[in-house]
Every structure is written in structure tokens, then in C-alpha cells.
Amino acid sequence: MKTHLDRYRQIAEILYRNGFGYLVAASGLENRLPFRRRPQPSDRPPGAANAPEYLRRALEELGPTFVKMGQLLSTRQDLLPPRYQQELAKLQDKAEPVPWEQIQPVLQAELGSDAMERFSAFGTAPLASASIGQVYAARLRSGADVVVKIRRPGVEEEVNEDLDILLGLAGYAGRHWEAARDYDVKGLMEEFAETLREELDYQQEARNTNRFALNFQDSATVHIPKVYADFSTSKVLTQQRLYGLKVTDTAAIDAAGIDRRALAADAAAAEMKMVFEDGFFHADPHPGNIFVEKGGRIGLIDFGMVGEVDDRLRSQLSALFVAVFRKDAERMASALIRMCPTSRRVDRIQLRLDLQQLIRLYDGRTLGNAPVGRIINVGMGIIRTHHLQLPREMALLLRMLIMTEGMGEVLDPDFSMGETLAPYARRMTMRQMNPVTFVRRLGQAGAETLELSAELPDQVRRLLTTLDFEGLEIHLRAEELAPLVVRLEKVGNRMVAAIFAAAFIRGVGELALGDAERWKSWQAPLMTAGLASTGALGGYLAWTARKQRMGRY
Question: How far is Cα 158 from Cα 455, in angstroms, rounded to an integer?
């Protein structure tokens, strides 16, 4: 019987045989090899130009979990250069079909021993066979045509074993390999494991599908298939079968009399609605997941890979959009550093210079006619160069934008992703400036100010004790002051925002009551206090900068 140790040995042998001895060494697998020679971290695949192909072959040989990992990596422009992405994109989630005799017991265990009798027709030859499940065409007794996705027997145990191994290897690499620490390989692997385990649970895909159906229930241009809950479990998913043309089959679309320009606009608008209005988007809009139905309606399927835009990401996107609109490299650098954590010290000056080169791609243009895909690709190269770690949701979002632009250009050579994106980006930016958002920021500012004020007395006492009994010696470099200045600047900005929000809210209330004189009586003192607070903070920061230049620190 195959054991956990056998799988470790198999992984080590396949990686080594394909020329990835340095990965074997970095992940601590060298002791699993039955060879005397141990690979070294300095080893490299034979022929750097062929390395992406060797990697793809190794992942295919390693099986379903590794194929899924390669597919995920092919979507991460922030982690891999384009030639690796292009090669890993060739990984197809296909597998030799499991015989119906092995699949039928799974269906019966999930839907009951009379499962086949609940359908008026059921085709036992699979429409598709992937690493996790197989898809069959069927018809319910109500007359509805459906597709039934059934999980392959034993796949959950196989995937979980590989994920446990990968998590252990990632942890080892993170402790012993600098590159693994820079890119937080352990965190990426944990994220991948969570995503793949969700994909094993068809109930999660059913919930995603129902959520999209609710969001598009009033849409005349987008069709989401119905999920049949009575015929679905964690291992079986039954949903409405959609029929239509492939979105890339332009000849057939023209023959059907469908306006391709309108179709491209509708598809892009649907993705923008998902991101900017619903905060929940289809993260894998490749041609196989999109049908063009009669009349030009778009049918979407396969909701296993989705992304969410929460308040934090929305705020980060707004800050980035403001910088992009203003073509301000300094703001863009700040927005990226806040969005993308990294264990390395970022060379902010070089980052700003690199972003100025990116701005030249659309300098003299509006966002509406900017080359969005090219801008994203260049931006991803900058992110890789500076070892910034793009959040998963942001990586999915940018990939979705590139795929949507590519599909739009196939349908309509004059399609502009920027023209579609610009109004949504502007609305998102303006939404962050409304009174409700100011109130929320006021609460955040209050919490941070209280936290800082609670810490301050104890910190002052410690400082005085040190001065009295030990003396004080300071050895600081300019860059070591950056976190302190950033925090002070952050608190200062929040204080100003809080004062402004308080003035705005109270002012509206006073004016509503018609008490204009009362408004005038406190307006000037409040603004004076706000300016004084801001001035004091600005004076302190200026004093700090002056002392740095004079060499006092």
C-alpha cells in the first residue's frame, strides 16, 4: 500500500528528473532521493529557456493537485514572468475518465439508491472529465435539461494528502530559502489549499452560483444557470444546462445576426457590475465558461473560482485609481506599498521611477482610451521586481480585467477596456468621499487616537526612567524613522478627516434647524483648532526632517 513517505519520494524523483534539483534541496526533499548525490540550491534546470516547459511537464506528471497549483500560478502575474505563465496556461484540467461503474455508486450514495430513477434520461458517457469530477448530461422528470457534476471517488483523500505535503514543504522552504520568504510561499500555499478544498465541495460552488443568480435576476443580458438543490450535495452538483455559441466563434455569431460590438460591451459591463456594484465577481471568464445564447444573451457557467471586493480592497483600489487618474507616481507608490505587504525594504525612489515609466504608457490620454491590459502587465512586472506581494483578490481582479479585455477585442477590434472601466473607477473614487464614508473614518480615527493616547503615558514614563537612570543614546538611520513618520502622518490625516467630518455633520444639522448664528459662533473656533492641530503635527514632521538633514539622528 502506498504511504505518505512513498509520495514524498515520488515528488522528489519527478522534480529531480525534470531538472529541478534546486527545488528539491530548497524544500528539504533531498533526503527522499535514493541517490548519493544531493542536489544543491545553486542547481538550475538544464537550459533556462526551456525551464517553463520542464516545470509544466513535472506538474503534469505529479498529478491533479499540482496541475491545479500550476493553473493558479499561471494567473499570478505578480509571481511569475510571462513566459512561465504562458507555459503553465497550457495545463489542462483533463483526466482519463473513470468508468461509469465506479462513478454510479457515488451518485447513489449521495442521492439515494433510486438516483437513476429520479431522472428521465441520463447519459453515462461523460461530457467532460477533469481531475476532481466528471460531468454528465441528463434530464429531470420535469423535462428540464441539466448537467450533473460528480466527484471522482478517492480524489478528496488524494488531494488532502498532497496539500499536507505541500504545506510542509512550503514551511521548510520559508525557513531555509530567502526567495521563499520574499514571496511568502507558505502563505501562498495556505491560500491555494483553502481554494482547492473549497473546490472539492460542490455545495460551495452551488452557493456561489445562487449568489450570482440573485445579483443578475433582473438582467436581460446575462443568464446564470439554476441550481437544483434537491439533486445536489457536496459531491454532486446538478444545474440547468445552457446552450449557445462559443464566445470566440465570431463567424457563427455573425451568422446568427448577433451584434458583436454590443456583445463585447455587455460582457464587459457585466464584469464591471460584479466588481464595482456587487463586490463579487467571476474570476475565470475564459471562453469555455461563456456561451452566447439566441438573441445575444450571455450565459455564464463554472463558479468555482470567484473573487470578492471588501471594504478594505475597495479603499485600496480607490487610492490607486486616484493616483492613476492624477498620473502621480508618488501616490501610486504609496498605494501599492499599502496594498502589497513585503518582508523586504522597498526602494521607494526606484519604485517611483519605475512607475513614472508606466505612466508614460498613457500620458496624454484619458483612462478611457488607455491600454489597460498593457498597463497591468507592465505594472505586474514592477510588482515582481520590487518583491511586492499582491493580495489574492487583487490578483484575481487584474487577471479578470485582462481576460475581459482580450475577449472584448476578439469580438470587437475597437473595444476599449479603459472606456468601460473609467466610469466605474470614478464612481468608486467619489463614493469614498461621501459623508457616510467620512463617518466611518471618524470612528476609525477615534479608535486609533484612543489607542495611541492610552499607550502614551506608559511610554513617557519609560522614557523618563531611562533618562534618569540610564541616559539616552540614539543610533537611527533615516529609513528607520519612516515607520514613525508614516504612523504620525496617518493619525494626523485621520484627525483632520475627523474634524472635517464632525464640522460637516454638525453644520448640516445646525443649518437644518435654521440656527445660522449658532453655526457662526462655533465654526471659527473649530476650524482654528483643526488648523492648530494640523500645524503642530506639520511642525513636528518638519522639525524631524530638518534634524535628519543636519545629521542630529
Answer: 51
Which residues does 258 contact at the CB level (< 8 Å), separation at least 6?
A: 292, 295, 296
pLDDT digits (tens, 9 = 90+) for 303-359: 988 999 988 888 888 888 888 888 899 999 999 988 887 777 889 999 999 999 999
Backbone φ, ψ for residue 142 (5° rounding): -75, -10
**Residue from 309, 353, 314, 307 nearest 330 by CA:** 353
Instruction: Count the neighbouring beta carbons within 10 Å of the beta carbon of residue 196.
Output: 21
Q: How many CA atoms lie within 13 A of 39 on its CB side?
A: 27
484 neighbors 537 (Cβ within 8 angstroms): no
136-165 pLDDT, tens digit per residue, is 999 999 999 999 999 999 899 999 999 998
Element (H, E) at 307: strand 306-308
**CB burial readout 32-50, b (16+ within 10 A) else e:** bbeeeeebeeebebeeeee
Q: Three-class SS of residue 48? A: helix
3-state secondary structure 188-254: HHHHHHHHHHHHHCHHHHHHHHHHHHHHCCCCCCEECCCECHHHCCCCEEEEECCCCEECCCHHHHH
Distance CA 351, CA 446 (A): 33
Cα(150)–Cα(63) distance, integer angstroms: 19
The dihedral over CA atoms of 490, 493, 499, 504, expressed in degrees to the nearest 10, equals -120
Instruction: Looking at 412-515, list the stretches that DSSP marks H as alpha helix, in order from N- to C-terminal side.
Output: 417-431, 435-469, 482-513
